Amino acid sequence: MQMARIELPEALVMEILSKLPVKSLIRFNCVCKYWCSSFQIPHFIFKHYHNNLENNNLNLLLRRHDGNTFQPYLSQLSNEKDQKDLVKQNIHLPFFKNAIPSVYGACHGLLCLQEPSTDKAALWNPSTREFKILPPSSIQRPPYLSPMEGNLALYGVSFDHAALGFDSKTNDYKVIRFVSFIYYHSPFVTRTFVNIEEEQRYAYPHYEFQVELYSSRSDSWKELPCPLYTPTDLILGNNYVDGICYWKTMTEAYLGLILLFDLANQKFSILPFPEITGSCLHYYDNILMFNGSLSVIVCLLEGTGMSFDLWVTSEGAWTKQFSIESISGVLHPLGFGKNGELFLRDTNNEIVLFDLSTQELKELEINTYLDHFQESISLHAYVESLVRINGIQEHEKHIIRQLAGDASKKY
User: Fold this and answer.
1) Cβ atoms of residues 155 and 182 within 8 Å
2) d(Cα 107, Cα 383) in Å, to the nearest integer?
3) Could you tell me which residue ranges the F-box domain spans (predicted)?
4) φ and ψ at 319, to 5 degrees?
5) For a pLDDT cut of 70, what percent of the chain falls above it?
6) 121-155: b or e for each residue (b if 16 or more CB lie within 10 Å)?
7) N or C: which end of the chain has fewer CB within 10 A?
């Protein structure tokens, strides 16, 4: 006897599909034209993204630099709990050759890759494997400046402190970055100095800063007025939330401030750091995102150990979220994982995990002693999404994936 066929309402089918991983949805593109077209509708894309966001389905990437081949790469960490081999696969970036690209984002599952020494940048959706190379910078680079005290020759240009975000007002993904121009007095290279005072006068560099904004809708950059304060430190992981980009900056009086940029009105503003009280003078702080909110982590150095305070802001008011007592043998934090665990790099150049619920330190068997530029190791979290960037699929010229420990594929 043939069983009756049960037809599910299309709305229920789409609700079920919106809870599936991107990998499954890509396979289901060939089931029927309706499904394929539905997966490209903005309503379905954002419903799928927010389902992942609500379920805290974070994916983690470690930015690294191979000490033997000097090639930049990203280690993708497994989401499975108690996984013995936490590194799932390594993603190599031949598009950036020997440079270490900075990673910015994530925003709706997208990441921005930026090479600091050039204007080479790209948008990347690691879930759909779509990759888009951004156009060259539109900022003019004057070779000389002529202030009152002699000519200044351009020595170098640096592209740093980027942020990737979404402008809900124009439904546009945007990248903002700071461009640093480094000038030296032109006689410094060729001139024979009479005395030390004269040499010192010409030895110090002069910096000029500019800001440019990329729009994915126009696929172009435009220059913006530079704010009074410019970023001074790299952030931990993401520096964007709810239409606002954030950077750490410093005043002339060495007071910490947070620089804000509103993508919708394209305006800069500032926010004070939380007031650090207590007798400990040896500490440093940095900004990061915690549970979708702007946060500041304060690292207190106490002998061979390190303690941590996490501050979270709401409408400009700071509240201490929690404190972690002294942990011995750790160097600096990398960021937070799926369940609020704190990733750290220790004195043995290994990545370790501090569980907030059990207050225990766990070794992850991720050794970085062979990494080049160990100080540049960073942690980046993103949520899977179907957001399209009108790019191309990953290509070996740009990105190569291989299973961890698989040395069969050269790069």
Assistant:
1) yes
2) 9
3) 2-49
4) -135, 135
5) 86
6) bbbbbbbbbbbbebeebebeeeeeeeeeeeebebe
7) N
- The model's pLDDT over 284-295, given as tens digits with 9 standing for 90+, comes to 788 888 888 899
Copy the structure tokens of residue 151. 């000519």
User: CB 174: neighbour CB atoms within 10 A?
Assistant: 23
Mean pLDDT of the chain: 84
- From residue 319, how far is each of 92, 295, 297, 314, 342 by CA, in Å? 40, 9, 12, 8, 19
Spatial contact of 356 and 341, defined as CB atoms under 8 Å apart: yes
Q: Which helix (DSSP H) or strand (DSSP E) does residue 332 occupy?
A: strand 330-336
CATH class of the domain comprising 56-403? mainly beta
Residue pair 104/111 in contact by the 8 Å Cβ criterion: yes
**Coil, strand or helix at 254:** coil
Instruction: Tell me the DSSP string of 272-309.
Output: EPPPP-SS---EEEEEEEETTEEEEEEEEEETTEEEEE
CB 84, CB 103: distance < 8 Å = no
Beta-strand pair 72-77/305-314: unpaired
CA dihedral 217, 106, 86, 348 (to 10 degrees): 130
